[in-house]
Amino acid sequence: MSDETRGRVPLNEAARSRAAQNVASGAAPGVGPVRRVASRRPFGLREQKLAYPDREGYHRHWFNDEPGRIARAGDAGYKQVLDESGKPVSMTVGVARGGGAQIAYLMEIPAEWYREDMAAQESGHRELMDQIREGRVPGGPTGADRQAQYVPRDVGISIREERR
């Protein structure tokens, strides 16, 4: 039984047929048919990969799925954001320690709680900066050892307090 009787076209005929279709559709030679896309986003534009719509009154944050991290966020008051189908919003963000995909989950907390947490964190930072200025670093040297290991103020080292 020949190829034509089985409904198969010889390879060179199939290639000629595809080339004719490409020319008719406006595609370059050797390239598949041109597909028209209704809404097209050019590739290579600067865009935020983890962008997700805000929710009024809430602060959203992506948490990597590392052992204990999602549970710790839940203990801090964060709840998982769910998509239209009721599943947690997640995205692959890299390679995990074991070699598989690193997944991040989008979680949210009331904005008021977030502001309180940031104020408490800022207070801790200010306290630490004061201790550094005074030469009292927690867990650091005491007494005469302190003077030998820390740079005097008049050397010209400045400490900036603004947050990045």
Query: Which strand-content bin applies to the residues?
Result: 15-25%
Low-confidence stretches: none
Query: Main beta sheet, described?
Result: 4 strands, antiparallel
- Gross morphology: elongated
Q: What is the rounded distance between the termini?
A: 75 Å
Q: Which class do the helix and strand fractions yield? A: alpha+beta
The H-and-E topology, N to C, reads as HEHEEEHH
The total strand number stands at 4
Radius of gyration of CA atoms, rounded to a whole number: 30 Å
Instruction: Please count the helical segments.
Output: 4
Roughly what is the average pLDDT, rounded to an integer? 78
Helix residue percentage: 25-40%
Notes on the structure:
The chain is of the alpha+beta class and 164 residues long. It has helices at 11-25, 69-75, 111-134, 144-149, and strands spanning 58-64, 79-80, 90-95, 101-110. Among the domains are: 58-110, no CATH class; 113-155. The mean pLDDT is 78.
Main attributes of the structure:
single chain, 164 residues, alpha+beta, 4 strands
